[in-house]
């Protein structure tokens, strides 16, 4: 099997709700508009399989495409973001960015009770390999998250030393393409 094309997208803009675990956050009004806009973009046509993480924001990002194409959305935990639900809410962007930087520079260490970047990257990578073996010549859309996607692309591009800088350049609904284990389109736009 193999020869699949994976279109990996970061979810749309999130509505931050301090009282809820991060994995339960919804899309913002702008995020819903962004997800609807995806249905008109040529890159998101001719999709064979639609997958998302179990997080609501990733699922809702590809839901309009699934409705348009009358396709189910398959959800896998392995495509969830680095688990941050056990950590306290980080109220400032600087505090959040510092925690992300720490996680990405010390990938075997947990910061703020978050899952380690190494563990998250391994589960994500294993699932990608499994899907590539399971399917043949399919165009597969995967809706996931900024930290984990940047870790995955950086690993393939041998840029793990620069993963935080890569992450800082990505925004909501950025996407990249991987085919035959190679990056065809980087999620980080230059």
CATH superfamily: Phosphoglycerate mutase-like
Question: What structural class do helix, strand and pairing data support?
Answer: alpha/beta
CATH-level-2 architecture: 3-Layer(aba) Sandwich
Distance between the termini: 33 Å
Could you name the ranges where pLDDT drops below 50 across 5 or more consecutive residues?
A: none
H/E element string?
EEEHEHEHHEHHEE
Shape: globular
| Assembly level | single chain
Main sheet: strands, sense, barrel:
6 strands, mixed
Total number of distinct structural domains: 1
- Helix count, DSSP H or I runs of 4 or more residues: 6
Number of strands: 8
Beta fraction: 15-25%
- Rg for CA atoms: 16 Å
Class in CATH? Answer: Alpha Beta
Instruction: Tell me the CATH topology.
Output: Rossmann fold
For the biggest β-sheet, the strand order reads 5-4-6-1-7-8
How does this structure look, described?
By secondary structure, the protein is α/β, with parallel strands linked by helices. The protein has one domain: Rossmann fold (3-Layer(aba) Sandwich). The chain has six helices and eight strands. Strand 7 and strand 8 (182-185) form a beta hairpin. Helix 1 (29-37) runs parallel beside helix 2 (56-69) and helix 5 (146-156) packs across helix 6 (163-169). It is globular, with a radius of gyration of 16 Å. The chain starts with a strand and ends in a 5-residue tail after the last strand. The mean pLDDT is 93.
Q: Which terms would index this structure?
A:
190 residues; alpha/beta; Rossmann fold; 6-stranded mixed beta sheet; two-stranded antiparallel sheet; 6 helices; 8 strands; 38% helix
């Amino acid at each position: 099997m193999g020869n699949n094309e994976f279109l990996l997208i970061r979810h749309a803009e999130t509505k931050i709700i301090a009282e809820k675990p991060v994995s339960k956050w919804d899309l913002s009004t702008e995020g819903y508009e962004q997800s609807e806009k995806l249905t008109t973009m040529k890159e998101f046509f001719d999709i064979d399989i639609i997958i998302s993480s179990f997080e609501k924001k990733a699922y809702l990002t590809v839901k309009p495409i699934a409705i348009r194409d009358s396709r189910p959305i398959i959800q896998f935990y392995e495509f969830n973001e680095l688990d941050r639900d056990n950590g306290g809410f980080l109220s400032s962007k600087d505090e959040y960015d510092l925690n992300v930087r720490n996680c990405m520079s010390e990938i075997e260490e947990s910061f703020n009770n978050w899952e380690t970047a190494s563990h998250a990257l391994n589960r994500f990578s294993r699932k990608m390999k499994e899907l590539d073996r399971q399917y043949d010549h399919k165009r597969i859309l995967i809706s996931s998250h900024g930290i984990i996607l940047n870790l995955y692309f950086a690993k393939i591009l041998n840029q793990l030393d620069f993963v935080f800088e890569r992450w800082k350049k990505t925004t909501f609904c950025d996407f990249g393409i991987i085919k035959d284990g190679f990056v065809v389109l980087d999620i980080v736009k230059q």
